[in-house]
Structure prediction request, 898 residues.
Amino acid sequence: MPAYILRRLIQSALILLGVSFITFVLLYILPADPVRQIAGRSATAETVASIRSQLGLDKPFIVQYGTYLWNLLGGDLGRSYLQKTEVGTLLVSRLPATLLLMVAAIFCELLIGLTLGMIAALYRGRPLDNALMLGSFVSVSAPQFVVALLLLYVFAVKLGWFPIGGYGTFAHLVLPALTLGILGSGWYSRIMRSSMLDVLRADFIRTARAKGLNRTRVILAHALPNAILPVIAMVGIDIGMFMSGIVVVESVFGWPGIGQLAWQAIQRVDIPIIMGVTLVSACAIVIGNLLADLIAPLIDPRIRLR
Amino acid sequence: MTVAEPLLPALDSDRQDIVLSVRNLHVSARSEEGLVPLVQGLSFDLRRGEVLAIAGESGSGKSITSLACMGLLPQPAVRITEGSIRLGETELTDLPESQMRALRGARIAMIFQEPMTALNPVMSIGRQLIEAIRAHDPVSVSDARARALEAVRAVRLSQPEKRLEQFPHELSGGMRQRVMIAMAIALRPDVLIADEPTTALDVTVQREVLDLLRDLQRDLSTSVILITHDMGVVAEMADRVIIMRHGSTVESASTVDLFETPREDYTRDLLAAVPRIGGAAARAALKKQESLVRIEDVSVRFPIRQGVLGRIKAQVHAVEHVSLEIIRGETLSLVGESGCGKSTIAKALVGLVPYSGNIEINGKNLVRLNAAGRKALRRDLQIIFQDPMAALDARMTVGELIREPLAIHDIGTAEEQRARVYQLLERVDLSPAYYNRYPHQFSGGQRQRICIARALALEPQLIVCDESVAALDVSIQARILDLLRDLQKEMGVTYLFISHDMAVVENISDRVAVMYLGQIVEMGTREQVFGDPRHSYTKRLLAAVPVPDPRSPRAGLPRLTGDVPSPVWPLGAGPARQALVDVGGGHMVAPD
Prediction:
């Protein structure tokens, strides 16, 4: 087990290295010029050149990347071009909000998705199943901003139950978390449904029934723990999808997380922030997958980590 | 328990003795074509302490009958349409689910065929047993645990305390089936239904489980319904037999009467098709002893990686220093139990696993050839697998499937290939009209014929039959074996026949090699190995085979304890090498 975790951490470091390299290349070949953004349209050629050399952007690619990596090893993510603050400080101030939203949203999507998926499996082929699967299809295909605006309109504008946007109280959290939860629940309900259907056909379910167990116990004690295994692996992968959804949702709800930070930075070609946000997202995905893999053997004793 | 038991006076003593009574049972499945009958008008009585076997081939409705008695039919798709099932004085067919649940597991219990999948993989053995007890008896967890422990001891599992903590995947198939039996008998049911309880087990394990079932049945005087396709198991276990076919009873008699004076033609055919050891016809000696395959000192090991860097820390020694020779035109059988390495040798032979040592086919080594040479050599090598449905691409027609090898090796024009497929279909007794049909439209036996036709398409010199008849009913199995023999006579093809079934092996082989833990422990002609077995493992294998004769004395085999040792060894270590010694006439035996 410790050997396994150590090996996974080494792998993770390599993954992060790869992510940093690819992102750096993409930003380097991007036609948009960050210096122009900083200097403004009316700046003279000399000003532009001096800013460029100040930021070290006139150096060859390898030197730029090498410098970035070297600083990164020392824990320095660089300074924002426009805000002139440390990227590290910015991320640290923004991260709690995003983590809170992420945890709440994952909770929502699992709660909604797993419950509906299980119900659909138990009512397989009946109208309820068809309705739920149609609903999941809609939720999977709906754009994030549509769901967000719909919830805002109904629950914030019309009913006034929750604030329209902002950050601070539990009430602020509900709508953004629900938006992400509803969007994600479609996937989970489908995975849960098919996984549950597989498990319900299994021989050990027949054995459980032959023992004379009641239906509730057969489903909750025997079917559920087996059906949930593929879902756990899915959560790890899902965090990646989540990071892209969070950019939109944080913007719509004015949630001061790293998604919003990323959105602003992309518009202004603020390369150090983009790099920082990308690396943090990659970290989240890597850690999420590691956690999913560590949780799986707690549920299924057949899984050995080595 | 809230089961109402009407206190009606028993009509006579005989009536009182009947535990389960089935009358005119009809079970049907709903399908697109309307109701399809699965069981039609079945009636029988099960007396206290009796073992009643329901025997028949696949599709005979025997398993459906057992599920109907348990109230476990996959409703509403399959349901009882007529008739009655009475457990004691309780009518089961119209019993509400809540009351049926109270009986299930307590008064009527069941053991299933597949011990590998019948237990919940994520729940410990102990919890599964305790749960079964507490579902019917509101005792404390510790009391239930004590009873679970008692049940685990009763099924002779070693280290019972430890077993309760373990998970199903940590136990072998035989041990899991014992757990299933422990679960079924823990509440002392009146009726125990055993649905093919030993079919998925190795023959020596089957022997242990059958012995156990018989002992328990006598000690607890439980009534047992034994569902099986194996007439050997019937002969050893049952007091009475019902032969079923297409959902109806063909014949019902005491076991001795059924085997000695079968009344119905179907029963006679079924009994005649059962392979028996010692019943095989003599085989003509080969004209010339020319070697086709030479396997020299072949070992196959699978690495187990561990640690931070994933270094190889241990190896599974699947095949250890095996040397053997296959003579052109003969049938050489490899026998042994699961995990003994017999299939791995076949895979190494056709180049599907890496091995050390030397394998030559017609003097050529597959590994050392270039791509073209390898392709040419593969023409001479074909395999027929165990599961024909899995071995046939469901999206290709029968014609395409058989033609594919001809197309791959670019033999003949499209017209000639087509003509060849027709000819092959006829040769395996299938109609050429099947050319455009799909595999799912055929029965298991027909599918295996398609696989044989495909293997024959390239006129190979060697066909590897890997458990090729194991999944088939005995009557179909007998016909496929006949077909294989005829083909050998006609085309002179050589077979490497891999099987766990001693009777089938005796039926078809010229020479036999017995494998145990990756090594050959005995090898010789069929007469030598079956007539004069020398190695203790060979003797044990032969003695374990159920004999389809109710009067044959049951071999008083010593009760085996423990499992087959593990083939996993740390790097650098390995099992002791078994050097074969010639005990006369080419009969090679490893010292015990």
Remarks:
- Residues 1-12 of chain B have pLDDT under 50 and may be disordered.
- Residues 355 and 380 of chain B are 20 Å apart (CA to CA).
- The radius of gyration of chain B is 26 Å.
